[in-house]
């Protein structure tokens, strides 16, 4: 049996922002899914994660895809476009073309692609209606790119109404918390034909109340606007989360 070698590329969604450990490092759905993969199969899984927060879709492809493929994985996961959707003048078809590039390169290298759509934060965001419309268009465009490809693993989170509940989100309303990341990890394992722990699918019925009104804008929206004005990114100066293989043994 060929050992699974799973590499993830992407932005903060795949890096795991919102699912912070006590020491300040982040975990996230990809870490959780990789360990769950080992647990479900009873076999070690080699896991790497090149994701960096703040990255747009095409920079993810241009900076992370080839280093990921150079590791010679059996499986590669890709998600991108969440940061693009928050920018003015976004070209949804251009973002979707990034998925086409990733699929082509995976085909050339004999790697099985896992495509994820991000969770939908629009219900609680400023300009949420705009984010919802763009996310719907991007989801449709990506699905067209992988139409007729049953070999592509689909872990589609954008249509998941349950995942949009506040209980799955961190205080910034833009990144999932630990419950959200576990639900996404459960969906990835399910899409692979594996059985995730049932508890991963659910969150409490209520959520902690984060800052509201001006306090929310000062803490989260203001810094985001400053980064746009100064053309900086939350990922500036950050290296890949896990640039080489880590071996995860079944628990």
Which range does the strand content fall in? Answer: 5-15%
Strand order of the largest sheet: 5-4-3-1-2-6
Structural class: alpha/beta
Describe the largest sheet: 6 strands, mixed
What is the top-level CATH class?
A: Alpha Beta
State the shape. globular
Tally the helices.
7
Helix content: 25-40%
Domain module count? 1
Looking at the structure, the CATH topology is Rossmann fold
CATH superfamily: SGNH hydrolase
Report the C-alpha radius of gyration, rounded: 17 Å
Order of helices and strands: EHHEHEHEHEHHE
Please state the average pLDDT score: 91
Got a strand count? 6
Q: Note the gap between the termini.
A: 19 Å
Q: Which spans have pLDDT < 50 for at least 5 consecutive residues?
A: none
Q: Which second-level CATH architecture applies?
A: 3-Layer(aba) Sandwich
Summary tags:
7 helices; SGNH_hydro; SGNH/GDSL hydrolase family protein; six-stranded mixed sheet; 6 strands; hydrolase activity; alpha/beta; SGNH_hydro_sf; GDSL_Rv0518-like; Rossmann fold; 251 residues
């Amino acid at each position: 049996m060929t050992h699974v070698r799973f590499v993830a590329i992407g932005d903060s969604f795949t890096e795991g922002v919102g699912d912070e450990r006590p020491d300040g490092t982040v975990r996230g759905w990809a870490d959780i899914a990789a360990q769950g993969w080992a647990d479900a199969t009873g076999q070690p899984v080699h896991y790497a994660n090149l994701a960096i927060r703040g990255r747009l879709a095409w920079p993810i492809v241009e900076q992370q895809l080839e280093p990921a493929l150079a590791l010679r994985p059996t499986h590669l996961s890709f998600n991108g476009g969440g940061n693009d959707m928050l920018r003015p003048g976004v070209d949804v078809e251009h973002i979707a073309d990034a998925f086409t590039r990733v699929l082509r390169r995976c085909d050339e290298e004999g790697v099985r692609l896992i495509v994820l759509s991000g969770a939908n934060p629009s219900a609680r965001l400023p300009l949420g209606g705009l984010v919802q419309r763009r996310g719907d268009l991007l989801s449709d465009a990506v699905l067209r790119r992988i139409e007729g490809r049953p070999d592509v693993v689909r872990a589609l989170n954008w249509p998941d109404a349950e995942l949009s509940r506040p209980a799955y989100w961190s205080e910034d309303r833009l990144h999932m918390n630990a419950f959200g990341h576990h639900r996404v990890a459960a969906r990835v394992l399910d899409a692979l034909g594996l059985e995730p722990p049932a508890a991963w699918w659910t969150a409490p019925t209520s959520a902690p109340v984060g800052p509201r009104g001006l306090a929310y804008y000062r803490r989260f929206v203001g810094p985001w606007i400053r980064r746009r004005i100064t053309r900086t990114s939350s990922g500036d100066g950050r290296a890949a989360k896990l640039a080489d293989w880590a071996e995860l043994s079944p628990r």
